[in-house]
Amino acid sequence: MGVHPFLVGPTPLRWPADLVVTELDRLIAAAPADGPGAADPHLWGQEVEHFLREVFPAGPVEEWPALWSSGWEQGHDRAVSGAGTRWLRELRSAVDTMPEPRSRPAYWTERRAGDLPRTRGTRESAAAVADAVADLEQAGYLVWAFGQACVDRPVAGVLGEDPAEAVHSALGRVGLWPIAVHHTSYTLDDLADVIEFLADQVRRPTRSYLHDYAGCGRHFDGFDAVRGVQVYRARINAVLRSSDLGVELGEHGRLVQTTPPGLGDLVTDALGGSSVHAADAAELAHAVARFRAREATELDRRHAVIALAGILERRRGLVSEHLLQKDAGALFTIANTYGIRHQKADQRIEYEPQLYLEWVFYLYLGVIHLTNRIVAEQQQEREEQ
């Protein structure tokens, strides 16, 4: 077939590029092959077509059916599977050249406001979340939980015949679902609960077909929980990033406090780095989750800082070796002197907890990440000797 440009035009992808690549890798790995247990070529082709229709506005959506149907018409199912796999690999290589989802250009009054960011409050954020949920509902992401509407044979989802009642029962109050009807009266707690509830329910359909009887519409099947929450998280966080709510949806479907600007990569890298001691990874993950939880209190945040201080205490020798002696000592003086780690009468407690604990937390997290990197580099040098 040869490498060729995929004609997607200026319209952006509907998913972030990293998710597009991850799903393409899954489809390529699942391609039909000869032998026992091989994937059904028909179902695989349907999954590819459904993915393309969901993610790409043009170009690949039109090219794939022509490639796939021509092979089936000639009865060359395995041959067309091979050609399809090569085509998907070319598409994967071209993803980096395609525009990603982006915010719309600013309107007149927004531009006149200069550099002052216009952020959404609770009411505006709830409306934007409702719009995102409506888009995902149309794409079949709520079918697994809320059921498949159909003109002649509707099917209930796992929430049963009355999904609104299931939502209200789970969240302990009424007036929350459907979100399209009730979002105008949401409080921040209402919005947060609905966002987290839906994170547990969304499933991405991997296949679909058009039920054209009486104009019924598209039906969905093959639900994927992992990809479902990944796409849902991307859509919801796009809304939350432009809000003043100070939260984002974490990997496990729960809202966490946003990290200060520029420190998001530090959290990711520190959690993903090599551990110096066996207990470090679990303690670090617990401390980060506790500190960033939406409902975290001052006491929760202080205990998270104490946990990081404990990790550094086990690394005191490593810290002292690679930092100036005074700097290493200062790290522990901060926790011991300012009423964080110990509660003694002579400790300093006249500080603003919100700002101070945040500063100490990310300072300690940065040193933990530094020592992780030092240990990893030392290990690599030993292996190369």
Helix/strand layout:
Blueprint: H1 17-29, H2 41-55, H3 60-73, H4 77-94, H5 108-112, H6 122-138, H7 143-146, H8 163-171, H9 179-182, H10 188-201, E1 204-211, E2 217-224, H11 225-240, E3 247-249, E4 255-257, H12 264-272, H13 280-292, H14 298-314, H15 316-322, H16 325-337, H17 353-384
Antiparallel strand pairs: 1-2, 3-4
Helix pairs in contact: 1-4, 2-3, 3-4, 6-11, 10-11, 12-17, 13-14, 14-17, 15-16
Q: Low-confidence parts, pLDDT < 50 over ≥5 residues?
A: 72-76, 342-349
Order of helices and strands: HHHHHHHHHHEEHEEHHHHHH
Q: Shape from CA axes?
A: globular
How many extended strands?
4
Q: What is the CA-CA span between the terminal residues?
A: 46 Å
**How many domains make up the 3D coordinates?**
3
- State which percent range the strand residues make up: 5-15%
Helical segment tally? 17
Task: Please outline the major beta sheet.
Answer: 2 strands, antiparallel
Strand order, main sheet: write it out. Answer: 1-2
Report on the structure:
The chain is mainly alpha-helical and 385 residues long. It has three domains: 81 residues; 130 residues, no CATH class; 119 residues, no CATH class. Helices cover 57% and strands 6% of the residues. It is built from 17 helices and four strands. The strands form two sheets. A two-stranded antiparallel ribbon has the order 1-2. Strand 1 and strand 2 form a beta hairpin. The longest helix has 32 residues. The two termini are 46 Å apart. The relative contact order is 0.07. About 3% of the residues have low confidence.
